[in-house]
Automatic annotation (TrEMBL):
The chain crosses the membrane at residues 23-47, 54-78, 84-103, 190-212, 224-241, 253-272. Its main location: membrane. PANTHER family: ZINC TRANSPORTER ZUPT, ZINC/IRON TRANSPORTER. GO terms for molecular function: zinc ion transmembrane transporter activity. Pfam families: Zip. It is found in: Membrane. It is a multi-pass membrane protein. It comes from Hemiselmis andersenii (Cryptophyte alga). This is Uncharacterized protein.
Amino acid sequence: MLGEPMFVTLTAALDEASNGSSYMLPLAFSLFAGLSTGIGGVLVLFFRNNIVHLGVIAFMLATAAASMITVSIVDLFWSVADVIGMPHTVFCCSLGFMTVWAVRKFGPSLLHEPKADESTEHRLERVGIITAVTLTAHNLPEGMAVALSTMGSSTLGLKMALAIALHNIPEGLAITGPLLMSKQKTPFEAIGLALASGLSEPVGALLTLVFFRNVLTQALIDYALAYVGGVMVAVATLELIPEALRTDRHWHTVGGLLCGTVVMGLSLHALGE
């Protein structure tokens, strides 16, 4: 676990650099966390020559799915349940899951369940777009949480921003990977979508600081995070994992699930989540 003295020293220096501004640090921390989604998107370019292989597709989709599920369970579900209670947490998570199911059934045609004769390219494009929309919704309350935490304690805010930044990197992969593999989007468009998803973090922080500072509580954010956790689990189990299994590369899928779970779990543990 990262040492507390290091955080105290660093945040003290940042506090001094911000000249006492109550807006500077929350926005800086949330921007830092959000930009890491774009970093994850850029990383896909290093594998682009191999990305057409079905094994790579299966591994990346499964890794992203496992990362999202691990974050939802470890970082959202249990921590939120301690604050708002298990019944409320289960209800909000279930509502989030059912929202994704309903959108797939009755929403815009791009978000519908895939048809049997749908091409692999269009399926992957749909997965990437759904993931981007979901993670944008996920990042907004995270930005609010970073802002609130930083206003209470700059050390706590920095810890939260680092934890979010770490798990935003594979989230960027989850967006950019399928879009590039679909060959329906240029690298610029795919990375731009991942970056836009991450930038909802500072947007959430700005909304908190400007409009909701006196009315928004940590409890309300916890309800929102529980809901988004259910949405993320739904996307992982209804979209990413089935798409990985359709490649018929089951060992790559299993390896991706293990990799995503272990890497994300260790990252959260190292940061005290």
